[in-house]
Amino acid sequence: MDTLVVYESMFGNTRMIAEAVADALRSTGDVTVATAAEAPVQLSGYGLVVVGAPTHAHTLPQPSSRQEAAAWADDPDRDLTLEADAMEPGIREWLDLMTLSAAEPRFAAFSTRADIPRIFAGDATAVIRRRLHRRDLALDAHEDFLVDHDSHLLRGEQQRARDWALTLVPVTSRRE
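Request: output the structure for the sequence above.
Response:
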């Protein structure tokens, strides 16, 4: 099964989760990993598409929240480095551009969000689900991976991402 892992990342956390997911899924077939700005919009040939984004102000990043992330990275009191493509169009825009062939892939989504109750942090996967639903597509699975109050990935989240990725495919399709 060919898989596309498409993500948007501000400080590298979502990229690290996307890479962990892709590493785990390589046992199931070919995996393409791409930022939303570089990802193909034609999804023919993919059996699974995994979409990942950080949660910004309860939703997917948008131009204003990307600007805020850049300001955080510029703050000398924060230990943050802005990803090179953080200001490029992201998952919000990619979801609007993607096109499907007759054979629709299965979709899964993940987000990175603050380690606080979801009601306070929001959840980008809920927005991804709604955007897919508007196109009569279903989200088969979703998961949140957590960052601390300084926007650094919590210990163990990459391994948790690998474990979650393996739940996305039937055992019979895994290469041993």
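The two ends are 14 Å apart (CA to CA).
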